[in-house]
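# step 3/5: fold
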Amino acid sequence: MHNWVAIASYSRPMDAHLARTKLESEGITCVVNDEYLIRVNWLLSNAIGGVKLMVPEWDEQRARELLRPQPRLVVVADGETVDCEGGDLICPSCRSYDVYFHRFNRRIAGVFWLMFGFVVPWLSRKWVCKQCGYQWKERRSGER
């Protein structure tokens, strides 16, 4: 008889199955639990703790190590490299992880809407930090 341990919880069954295939490729037996209940009524996902990925007790530590996000080297604004946990993008100014991609210029779109009654999407394409307000453009490959 195996003692099963939940090592991860996911809100979508597909994410749990992706983690399951990664563990099974390393030879760890695992089971996805509560998958069908979430498929029938997805609103219950938070109430029951999501779709659980379970492994035998003796493989718990190894499975957690395999599912841990790997640090990734990220190049920020001035060619400087920074180690980021899980491959997150960071602000080159304040090193905050709270950044978002700003695709359209809202001011120009707002002026078009007020003057003509329709919006012309004027592309801006820049990253903005929510913490310090710093803005930068992502360099394309081959740009200097």
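# step 4/5: annotate
Residues 72-136 form one domain.
# step 5/5: archive (pending)
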